[in-house]
Design goal:
single chain; 5-stranded antiparallel beta sheet; 1% helix; 46% strand; binds magnesium ion
Length: 317
């Protein structure tokens, strides 16, 4: 297939959309809907990240990190507007069990929660008296604990935060929001970035965007992780944000190579690459949404994309 002939400027797409590539007919073929195309919903950012869907409000929030703003795409009107600016160079977002927005902030090097009344609560910003590097992405477990990565990209340059020295190793943390206490759950990854649980929460996947650029998987043992191992090798490119569907397939952002690689890579639970969605930009993150949780929203470089699939996201709520 060729990804060069797929138009991304709003002109006609011949169905079925060639941007969706089935690599394993048995395990991926049924996900592709013949009369559903990948859509570019909006463009105009410098680096999009951190999509999170709000079914109660029928909108999607996502970050535009260098422009220091959180954007809001409205499902009912198709319009995109600014949700929050300045936004402390926010990156990854999720929702907690009460539906509140939980965000990683580069500039302020912290994890915050936006309350239902709009006020912002600082959940965590230092460990052992030292400042976090720059939290990147975040998920919430059903026990309400908040798991986040701290690879420090936001302090490497002034472009997505404020350049500064690292005070702590790059890590993954588990935060108990009730006590405000956090523990280190991963300490041996170079740049831990995107993360998500398997549907039964027995596994945690963490992508490494440093060296090597693998997606790791860990067994969840209570509040700790065990038996870290390589789930998927992303060479020659890299993953970033990741999400599971209800079948336990891992949908990963992919980028930094070019046509034929950049987009979304879908891995079966055994780690086999079973399908791709080819996109014309480096992809940073994704999430499922829509009333049926069957629409995959994808942030990539300057744009926001979406596609309906015959599967459903595992995100809660
Ligand atoms: Mg990320």
């Amino acid at each position: 297939m060729s990804t060069d002939t797929r138009p991304w400027d709003g002109s006609i797409v011949r169905y079925p959309d060639p941007a969706i590539q089935v690599l394993d007919e048995d395990r991926f073929g049924s996900f592709k809907i013949g009369n559903a195309a990948v859509e570019r919903l909006w463009t105009g950012a410098r680096w999009t990240e951190g999509p999170v869907y709000f079914g109660d409000g029928r909108y999607l929030l996502f970050s535009d990190i260098p422009n220091n703003r959180i954007m809001r795409w409205d499902e009912t009107t198709g319009q995109t507007s600014v949700f929050r600016q300045p936004a402390n160079n926010s990156n990854g977002h999720t929702r907690d069990r009460q539906g509140r927005l939980v965000s990683c902030e580069h500039f302020t090097r912290r994890v915050t929660r936006t309350e239902h009344d709009g006020t912002i609560t600082i959940l965590f910003d230092q460990f052992d008296g030292k400042r976090l590097n720059a939290p990147n992405d975040v998920v919430v477990h059903s026990d309400e604990s908040i798991w986040f990565t701290d690879p420090g990209y936001g302090i490497l340059l002034n472009y997505e935060g404020q350049k500064s020295d690292f005070e702590l190793p790059t890590r993954v943390y588990r935060l108990d929001p009730a006590s405000g206490e956090a523990e280190v759950v991963v300490e041996d990854m170079h740049r831990p970035n995107g993360l998500c649980f398997s549907p039964d929460e027995s596994l945690l996947y963490v992508s490494d965007t440093g060296d090597p650029r693998n997606i790791m998987v860990f067994d969840v043992a209570g509040t700790a992780l065990q038996n870290g191992r390589v789930f998927a090798e992303m060479d020659p490119g890299g993953a970033d944000g990741i999400r599971c569907d209800i079948h336990g397939n891992l949908w990963s952002s992919a980028g930094w190579v070019g046509a034929g690689y950049d987009g979304v890579h879908c891995f079966a639970p055994d780690g086999d690459l079973i399908g791709k969605i080819h996109l014309p930009e480096t992809i940073s993150n994704l999430c499922f949404g829509g009333a049926m949780k069957n629409r995959l929203f994808i942030t990539g470089s300057q744009s926001l994309y979406a596609v309906y699939l015959e599967t459903q996201g595992d995100q809660k709520p």
